[in-house]
Every structure is written in C-alpha cells, then in structure tokens.
Amino acid sequence: MGVIRVAASLLRCLALTAFCLALLPSSQAQSVNVSGRYQCAQVKVQKKIIPCTAAPLILKNDGHFELRGWEGSYMVEGDSVELSDSLTKARAKIEPGHKIVLRYYGKHGWVEMTYERRVADLGKTELT
Question: How many structural domains does the chain have?
Fold first, then answer.
C-alpha cells in the first residue's frame, strides 16, 4: 500500500511540473545575421566625436572576423557581438541601422567606435 501511495504522489508531482512548464512562455533563440563589412563611421574620444579612418570590421558568414590585423571568431549574444581570439575578448553592442559600437579603454581613456554596414546596390553604396 505504501508503494502505491508514493507512486501516486510522484505522478501528481510530475503532472504539476508538466502543467507549470506548459504555462511558461516559450522563447525561441533568434539568430541575427550580422555578417558583412562594416566601415568605421565615427570615433568618440574624451567626449569628442571625430571622423574615423580606421580599417573596416569584417564579420564573415563562418563566424570569423577581421579587424586591423586582429582575427578570431565572433558570436552574437542578444544585442551584442562577442569578438574573441585565444587571448582577448571584446563585446560590441548591436544598434539599430546595422551599426556595431565597440567600446574599449585606450591610452586617452574610453574610446567608442561606431561601425556601419554598407551594401553595394547597383553601383551605389548606401546604409542598410
């Protein structure tokens, strides 16, 4: 009789767990395609915005990137892109208008570089 009571309690517990899991909102992981060539549009150093002439940020379809001779892999996590190699990691924020903002601490303090993805369309270059 005791075994039947334990089994019944276990079944009730499993049924309650299944019911609670069914009530939880489902969330699917979204895969954001950020691959492409990003031109540096501006740099913000010591609260001053200056035009940028830095090398482009290239995010390849295979999950690898290139930036000023730095190569490694990248992964999209929510609204950010994590760039990494075997020694270094950097996190850049994805912003509306196909922009990626990379912040880091340089010799003059905090630096914020804004990269914009550009697409060639019938001979014209425009922001997408």
Answer: 1
pTM: 0.67
Query: Is 2 a member of any domain?
Result: no
| Residue at 20 is within a domain | no
Residue-level pLDDT, tens digit, the chain, 128 residues: 554 654 444 335 334 334 433 444 433 344 578 999 999 999 999 999 999 999 999 999 999 999 988 999 999 999 999 999 999 999 999 999 899 999 999 888 999 999 999 765 444 444 44
Query: Residue 43's domain spans which residues?
Result: 36-127
Query: For residue 73, what is the domain's CATH number?
Result: 2.40.128
Q: Is residue 59 part of a domain?
A: yes
Check if the beta carbon of residue 90 is closer than 8 Å to that of residue 84: yes
The per-residue DSSP string of 48-70 comes to: EEEE--PPPEEE-TTSEEEETTE
Residue at 10 is within a domain: no
28: alpha, beta or left? (left if phi > 0; alpha if psi -120 to 50): beta
